[in-house]
Amino acid sequence: MNTFYSEVLQLLEEEINDLNIQTDNPISLSEGAVSLIIEKLKQVKAFILNKEFSSKSEEIFFFKELKPKIVSKLIFYNAIYKIEMKKPHGSSRDTKNYIKNELGKLKIFFDNNLDFYKYYRTNSTYLDHMYFVRGIFEIKLSLDTYYFESDPFFSTSHDFKVAKIIANDLIQVYLEDQLLNIQRGANNHIKNSSLSSGLQWTANKTSLTELIYALHATGVFENGKMDIKRIANFFESIFEVDLGDFYHTYLELKNRKINKTKFIDILRENLLNKMEEQDL
């Protein structure tokens, strides 16, 4: 079971990484990711329904540790889709207030589920036989209405709540990064306006990050002594683009199974084609 699940999860993460490379639009990314996750969940569900768990401990491990990893991704990307669709396009103050309100919703969920948060965060196990075994539930243990609507053969009373906790952590980071970007954008607007080249970067941000790391690795600035962050900030300034967490983007590039230097390869191919055309 673990091998099958690990393969499905790895393939899902690779496919989501590919989507992330193809688009910088969080709405398009979320739409694509949700479709991928639903398909993978169907595969996992079919596998589980056709296979008996060898023991209660294996069942608990699946519903406490494994299933929530995929379901949390579904919750996360579905939430990001809704957040981005409803985000105001007015002033930065309106956007900040909107994001703070979304963060407040996460706090409400935390407050309403404090006891289970403590149980899960402390790696407790004494109620696992109630929380993560199918067909067993106790309404006094803070059950979500979702449980009564879910498939009893593929759900326990609290596996969705674990997924929700994991997803909320990711959503919080996403929202806090957006607040930071708004503040950083406001601080840098005046500071960097004089550095703007007037050129618009129309490829995706992942491609620019790949180019920046290639230049840094080659040591073309200050004989290789310039810090990667300074290089990234310079490119952000001249192209008026926010690369966000460019180090995280680099890690995604590094973890690609195929074609780690996709953009650099495209540059090389296009330049060679141009040279060949001019020789004709």
TrEMBL record:
| Superkingdom assignment | Bacteria
Report the InterPro entries cross-referenced here: Tet_reg_excision_RteC
What name has this protein been given in UniProt?
RteC domain-containing protein
Species of origin: Paenimyroides ceti
